[in-house]
Write a structure and sequence with these properties.
Layout lengths: L2 H10 L7 H13 L1 H15 L6 H9 L6 H11 L6 H24 L4 E2 L2 E2 L1 H5 L1 H22 L4 H20 L8 H25 L5 H28 L9 H4 L5 H9 L4 H8 L6 H11 L1 H20 L6 H13 L5
Antiparallel strand pairs: 1-2
Helix pairs in contact: 1-2, 2-17, 3-6, 4-8, 5-6, 5-10, 5-17, 6-8, 6-9, 6-10, 9-10, 10-11, 11-16, 13-15, 13-16, 16-17
């Protein structure tokens, strides 16, 4: 399966419960940059081989398992919106995916994960230490490539990496002390998800000489899209039957996401059961999930995702009209209605 077919396949899965036009519109975006995406995949394959085994083996294990490639898609479409896709844009699209993959390799160790994208995670195959070091290899390679491709704005990537790490630390801190606050939740989402989305969208336009105002608009677009994307993903954890994602994964890992935060506010009696799950007792999970659905908190989270999507589209509307801008809008609309 080539790069475009793999990305299309992975985008169809989460769109299964959305309107039938959703997957088709996402396919339009991927096909628009299909040849560019193939170039990005070639870079990912080549660069993941640079280094020492088994670190390189673990990196390839996850990189080549597929993925939706949303972050590279943002880089490529943003570059197309301002003239075309240069070698620098291709490099930065690969950087976006390598950084994302590195965080997943690290996350799977922290979460004691067993499976991702339908295959055993790298830590199960190569061990925790190798999985962490494989993520480090990808981060180092990302820094090398980004400094060469976009030296003037290299500090932007460093700031993004700092946010990713700080978001992970805050989330990890929640493993020992329950913090069901929206403030903490949104700080984690902004740092762990939205920061890289924002960097990716602005980076693509920057390679084509977009103005500072346009880059700022795309940063806002990407950050709002990242928040909406994560909100919907958190709903899928409770209501995403048929999407290919295992239900209650976040709950089982002790992560307090917004559907549960709102449910705890509505029904504080859930708190002892949540604490039991966090202590390793899986028995209360089904009741907690059922109560979340009964309280309708997922609907409220979806409503917030729509607000974030509208904010993303408003930022995008300030850019010059183009087919690539229209496709960015479709990506924003469709990625955030994966479950209705």
């Amino acid at each position: 399966m080539d790069a475009l077919q793999q990305a299309l396949s992975n985008l169809r899965e989460p769109a299964r419960l959305a309107p039938t036009h959703t997957a088709a519109r996402l396919e339009d975006a991927l096909r628009f940059v299909g040849s560019d995406l193939a170039e990005v995949e070639a870079r990912l394959r080549s660069w993941s081989e640079k280094g020492v085994a088994p670190g390189t083996d673990a990196a390839r294990h996850l990189l080549l398992a597929g993925g939706k490639r949303v972050r590279p898609l943002l880089v490529l479409l943003a570059a197309r919106a301002f003239g075309g896709v240069s070698e620098a844009a291709l490099d930065l699209a690969a950087v976006a995916e390598m950084v994302h993959t590195a965080t997943l390799l690290h996350d799977d160790v922290l979460d004691d994960a067993a499976e991702r994208r339908g295959v055993p995670v790298a830590r199960r195959v190569y061990g925790n230490a190798v999985s962490v070091l494989a993520g480090d290899l990808l981060l180092v390679r990302s820094l090398e490539v980004a400094q060469r491709a976009d030296a003037a704005r290299f500090p932007d990537l460093l700031s993004t990496l700092r946010a990713l790490v700080e978001g992970e630390i805050i989330q990890l801190r929640g493993r020992t002390r329950l913090d069901p606050s929206e403030e903490t939740y949104f700080r984690i989402v902004e740092d762990k998800t939205a920061s890289l989305f924002g960097w990716a969208a602005a980076a693509g336009a920057r390679t084509q000489g977009a103005s500072a105002q346009a880059q700022e608009a795309l940063t806002r677009f990407g950050r709002h899209l990242g928040v909406a994307f994560q909100l919907v993903d958190d709903v899928i954890d409770y209501e995403g039957q048929g999407t290919g994602k295992t239900l209650f994964t976040d709950l089982g890992e002790g992560k307090i996401t917004l559907p549960l935060i709102l449910a705890l506010r509505d029904d504080p009696s859930l708190l002892p059961e949540v604490e039991r799950v966090r202590a390793g007792d899986a028995d209360p999970m089904t009741r907690i999930a059922a109560r979340v659905r009964e309280l309708g908190t997922a609907d409220r989270v979806r409503a917030r995702a729509r607000v974030e999507t509208e904010a993303a589209l408003a930022a995008l509307a300030t850019l010059p009209a183009s087919p690539a801008r229209d496709l960015l809008a479709k990506v924003a609309e469709d990625l955030t209605i994966r479950v209705l």
